[in-house]
Amino acid sequence: MTTLLHGTDTLTRDALTVLQPGFVGTTAPDWLLRRIGEGLSSVGLFGRNIVSPEQLTALTAQLRAERDDVLVAIDEEGGDVTRLEVKQGSSFPGNYALGSVDDVELTRAVARELGRRLAACGVDLNWAPSADVNSNAENPVIGVRSFGPDPDLVARHTVAYVDGLQGVGVAACTKHFPGHGDTNVDSHDALPRIDVDLATLHARELVPFRAAVAAGTKAVMSAHILLSALDPHRPATLSPQILTGLLRQELGFEGLIVTDGMEMQAVAATYGIERGSVLAIAAGADAICVGGGLCDEDTVLQLRDALVNAVRTGELPEERLADAAARVRALATWTQAHRARGAESVSGAAVQEGTAPGADIGLVAARRALKVTRGPGSYTPVDSAPYVASFTPVANFAVGDETPWGIAAELERLLPGTETGSYADSSVDALLAAAGKRRIVAVVRDLHRHVWMTEALDALVAARPDTVVVEMGLNEAEPRGALHIATHGAARVCGRAAAEAVVGTGA
């Protein structure tokens, strides 16, 4: 184990402590290990860092050989946003599916099993759950990542999710405070603005966060959004009124405040990551998340030096940086204690789906989340290899485009010879030609948000009334087709549950 270098002063160590950087590779680079030895207390993992449970376990062990109290964080929501299974698709449905079932014990069980797998691989801080109330159906970045549009439903499932994760020693990081649901702009691309009054914010956005704080969530992640009723000048991540006044003082949160990714354009385009990080810590944040895009040593050193210089020039009070670093270390102590106590109970979590106790809970949840609507006339299940037509929208940054979605692979397992094609415009002539006489299964995602997709699907159903339609996004559009299946998410298990329904063996 590497001890802190004697030449690293307290101020520099504190600046390193509040950073949660990413890196490239499936093993830790030398520069990262060196900075951990100098005081870096957290590391963020992304899909690029993970190929298998065994490799992930080895990676986290490599990090803790330098410091056994290092926090290893991940953005593992399950559902559409997965890092553990970035190349395969998640074994767990996401929040929208769980909210549609509305069984808090099921949500708790899913979060517990997900947390169990994370803990067994050495991950102890999960940047989840999303507690956003998805009140705007046009939201391009939250959508199925939310439990739904009802604040009370979102609150009770957020609490269950936090309980499930933290019950197995994985710290929950409830996000995106004070609520990213009523936006029609993705904060990865630009700064969203929410112009509603304080009464609405308290009755809607803040309800799940109050519940999460009361339930003991160990961390809260800030949102890069401008809420004019709270702070008309700065986004929440940089706002003392929101982070210190609202979250700390009014809601009474004493845990770790983590920023959303500082390289996101909602902050970086106006402030830059260095000044943005200084303003965030000054506003009340305790940990700077960076690494989804910028993931090299230079980024870490730039942010470290920016914080140190801000203290030396008086822009950032030294005691504020010290307090932030102390909160990081306090969470590390909590997770370290839970790892020591829970190692035996979670020792089987790294195995693949179907072999660990409770490992099929994700599929159970996905099946329960299906909503199947029959069209006029009798429905004949698909009993021979169909043609799967996927209408493919542009993926948002949080989900990414490397995680597969749809049901073609699952239908192929049930009906060998299944063929598939992807389409991104309103014409269906090529689709009909490719399908020939095969039954068509049309897969859509957020149909209500895409005019071209709606036109294409309507034309397809008019030409082939026996088409099966599978909606894997928000279930906002009217059902279409001989059979309409709403999965409430695009995780792999959602595709499997839908495939079972298509052939008549499931819901």
Describe the structure.
There is one protein chain. The protein is an alpha/beta fold. The chain contains 17 helices and 16 strands. The protein has helices at 10-17, 30-38, 53-66, 95-101, 104-120, 151-166, 198-203, 206-214, 240-250, 265-283, 297-312, 318-342, 361-369, 408-414, 429-435, 451-463, 492-503; strands at residues 19-20, 42-45, 71-74, 125-126, 171-177, 193-194, 219-222, 226-227, 256-258, 288-289, 371-374, 387-391, 419-423, 440-444, 468-471, 483-486. A 6-stranded parallel beta sheet has the order 2-3-4-5-7-9. Strands 11-16-15-14-12-13 form a 6-stranded mixed beta sheet, with helices on both faces. Helix 16 (451-463) links the parallel strand 14 (440-444) and strand 15. Helix 6 runs parallel beside helix 8. The longest helix is centred in the middle third of the chain and has 25 residues, at 318-342. The protein is globular. The termini are far apart.
Number of separate strands: 16
Residue fraction in strands: 5-15%
Shape: globular
- Overall radius of gyration: 23 Å
Largest sheet: 6 strands, parallel
Secondary structure: helix percent: 40-55%
Distinct helical segment count: 17
Across the major sheet, the strand order is 2-3-4-5-7-9
Helix- and strand-based class? alpha/beta
Overall average residue pLDDT: 91
Q: Measure the end-to-end span.
A: 53 Å
What are the segments in which pLDDT stays under 50 over at least 5 consecutive residues?
1-7, 344-357
Q: How do the strands and helices of this protein lay out in sequence?
A:
Elements (H helix, E strand, L loop, with lengths): L9 H8 L1 E2 L9 H9 L3 E4 L7 H14 L4 E4 L20 H7 L2 H17 L4 E2 L24 H16 L4 E7 L15 E2 L3 H6 L2 H9 L4 E4 L3 E2 L12 H11 L5 E3 L6 H19 L4 E2 L7 H16 L5 H25 L18 H9 L1 E4 L12 E5 L16 H7 L4 E5 L5 H7 L4 E5 L6 H13 L4 E4 L11 E4 L5 H12 L4
Parallel strand pairs: 1-10, 2-3, 3-4, 4-5, 5-7, 6-8, 7-9, 12-13, 12-14, 14-15, 15-16
Antiparallel strand pairs: 11-16
Helix pairs in contact: 1-11, 1-12, 4-13, 5-6, 6-8, 10-11, 13-17, 14-17
